[in-house]
Design brief:
This protein is mainly α. It has one domain. 64% of the residues lie in helices and 2% in strands. It has a two-stranded antiparallel ribbon with strand order 1-2. Strand 1 and strand 2 form a beta hairpin. The termini are far apart.
């Protein structure tokens, strides 16, 4: 993946030269090139994606099966907040900050490690930016709908 690619949970769309140079300038002033840091950021990015996607599936399944943890308020609030960040970035047509940080940390590496290439292939897809904006906004709407349909508990359940 090249510096300036748009991506957070699945995009590889080139940004214009002005946006790309701004993103590079923002990060270059903060972080020197460091491939290990780039791999760590990729790991965090993958964890956020897993949290968002698996949470979206776990809430309705857990509600149907009576799993109490899917109604924990702080967990659900964190899930909504995480999706709100993704949806806001997509609505603004901005690159995911984790992707920008990863690109800045790794630089233009000719041949990233095999695992990194494999993970990048799973989460960055070459589709137009509007597709991702529409998908992220629809998924955020689904998360909000789940908050209403499977509401979190107001207080922790009695532990007797």
């Amino acid at each position: 993946m090249m510096a300036g690619d748009f991506g957070c949970v699945a995009a590889t769309v080139k940004l214009g030269p002005l946006r790309r140079s701004r993103a590079r300038a923002e990060i270059a002033s903060v972080t020197p090139m460091n491939p290990l840091l780039g791999e760590a950021i990729l790991g965090v990015h993958l964890a956020v994606i897993a949290f968002n996607v698996l949470g979206l599936a776990a809430i309705p399944v857990g509600a149907a099966l009576g799993w109490g943890w899917v109604r924990i308020r702080w967990w659900r609030a964190l899930h909504v907040l995480s999706w709100a960040v993704v949806a806001l970035q997509a609505a603004l047509g901005r690159a995911c900050f984790l992707t920008v940080w990863q690109d800045a940390a790794t630089g233009a590496v000719a041949s990233p490690p095999l695992i990194m290439r494999w993970v990048n292939g799973l989460i960055y897809w070459p589709l137009p930016i509007w597709v991702f904006g529409a998908i992220y906004l629809a998924l955020f709407a689904a998360v909000i709908w789940l908050w209403w349909k499977v509401p979190p508990r107001r207080r922790p359940a009695d532990r007797r």
